[in-house]
Write a structure and sequence with these properties.
The protein has nine helices and 31 strands. It is of the alpha+beta class.
């Protein structure tokens, strides 16, 4: 550690009457060295990402959840290039979501819009959809990306006309006695139009239902709509509808497919309603070595690893965009200072596990940026990076005190952003570390609460009660 620069920065924090930092006491300690420790640990990265820790406990199904940076990180040699690419793809996803929302909503509507616990982990190349869990379809274990902004669950299938490289063997439907295709005149096939934006297509000999799903970063999957048995941890679900992808392309890394946690009739949430009551939650882990969280299906709060109280806000209904999860943002705090902006209290936000960086309306983001810079002025700045324009050079430090970030929602619900969700590390030596929030292009666009700011939070989705809950939790799967 560079002791002299560190001591000088402390003096700047507490004694300089011009930087304003000494006035604020709400800080979090960030260890800069831990963020990329897995990058140098080849032994850890050699292990496969398939989880065997899923279990059933107290009526809940629990799946281990990981970030794909940790699982598939060993493949990448140029991390700085990869981190840049991830933000570019994240921006494409956000633009796609905004386009879909604008096409669906008229201008007058823009402002109003029993249990299973599964290990949840993380990955890297994906950039826009980067948390994974292990499920079992047709007796074959597969890692799939968790996405609350999508509805159809799908995996790559043999024979495959065009498939990207995945870590596990590609699913072979002919080896599963419970596999069967969906007919093109069925209600399930008709539901694709609402769930995916594309109508089901009739195949030939026999007339099966073919699906097409396109994602914001240019990725896509095409194939047969089918039924099979899916095991979520220790919980079996018979006749589960999913996509058997024969033609797939995109930045899904080594994952086998995607797990859709949206709200349409073919999402996992709707298909397991009789078992889990439309209730699920997750705790998204960081990318630190060995970090893992959990996806809990069902309403048993006794399996959560948190002693903190939950605060709840209502899901904002929108019949034309009912597959998404919306909430009202009513306040933002930086280092104990409550921001003042005309958009606060009128801002509808989308909460999404598949977007990386949180987006705020331009005026609100400007207010947050100004206050953060004021409180963090004792540290040297660095150039802007991609969509991130508030950056610092922290290469001389091992630890820094970071102003707290708090998001407040209708009903006095609060989400205290974990310290690992405040900064995005552009350079692995911390010479370019940026505030991990960005501005929307226009004031009337829908803001997004993204997965980077949801780290180490237990986020509850109670679709039956139409509410979202938050509590800080140190994500771990034990």
């Amino acid at each position: 550690m560079a002791l002299l620069p560190f001591m000088l920065s402390l003096i700047a924090f507490f004694l300089n009457p011009h930087n304003g930092v000494h006035c604020y006491g709400d800080k979090q300690l960030l260890n800069l060295q831990r963020h990329f420790q897995w990058n140098h640990n080849s032994d850890t990265l050699a292990s496969p990402c398939l989880s065997r820790k899923s279990r059933k406990e107290k009526g809940a199904t629990i799946l281990e959840m990981k970030h794909r940076d940790y699982c598939y990180g060993g493949r990448h040699k140029d991390w700085n290039k990869l981190l840049n690419k991830r933000l570019i793809l994240d921006d494409l996803r956000v633009r796609s979501l905004q386009t879909r929302i604008k096409k669906t909503m008229s201008p007058a509507e823009k402002q109003d819009v029993s249990v299973a616990r599964i290990p949840l982990t993380s990955g890297v190349e994906l950039g826009t959809l980067n948390y994974i869990v292990t499920v079992e379809i047709g007796s074959r274990k597969m890692t799939v990306i968790v996405d609350t902004g999508s509805d159809l669950t799908w995996v790559q299938c043999q024979p495959c006309k065009s498939c990207y490289g995945q870590k596990e063997p590609i699913f072979n439907p002919s080896a599963s006695p419970s596999y069967r295709t969906v007919s093109c005149n069925s209600s399930e096939c008709q539901s694709l139009a609402f769930a995916t934006g594309n109508t089901g297509i009739c195949g030939e000999n026999p007339p099966t239902c073919n699906y097409v799903v396109s994602y914001g970063d240019g990725s896509y999957t095409r194939g047969d709509l089918a039924h099979d048995r899916i095991n979520l941890g220790k919980t079996p679900v018979e006749n589960f509808i999913f996509g058997c992808g024969r033609n797939n392309k995109g930045l899904f890394g080594g994952a086998s497919g995607l797990l859709g946690l949206g709200r349409s009739s073919i999402s996992l949430v709707s298909q397991t309603w009789a078992i889990f009551g439309g209730f699920f939650s997750y705790c998204l882990p960081s990318t630190e070595s060995g970090a893992s969280g959990s996806l809990v299906l069902g309403g048993s709060s006794s399996v959560y690893n948190t002693s903190n109280p939950f605060s709840y806000t209502r899901m904002i209904p929108n019949p034309k965009l009912s597959t998404f999860y919306f909430l009202n943002l009513t306040g933002v705090g930086v280092g104990g200072v409550t921001l003042r902006d005309s958009s606060i209290g009128k801002t509808t936000m989308l909460i999404d596990s598949g977007t990386v960086i949180t987006r705020l309306p331009p005026t609100l983001y400007k207010a947050l940026k100004t206050e953060f810079q004021k409180q963090f002025s004792g540290f040297p700045t660095a150039p802007a990076f991609s969509i991130l324009d508030t950056c610092f050079n922290l290469s001389a430090y091992q630890e820094v005190d970071v102003p707290t970030l708090k998001l407040q929602f209708e009903g006095n619900a609060e989400m205290n952003v974990d310290v690992t969700g405040v900064f995005y590390f552009v350079k692995t030596d911390a010479s370019q570390v940026c505030l991990a929030l960005a501005s929307l292009t226009f004031e009337d666009e829908i803001g997004i609460i993204a997965n980077y700011q949801q780290r180490n939070q237990r986020v509850i989705y109670d679709t039956k009660g139409s509410r979202l809950g938050f509590a800080q939790e140190s994500c771990s799967f034990s």
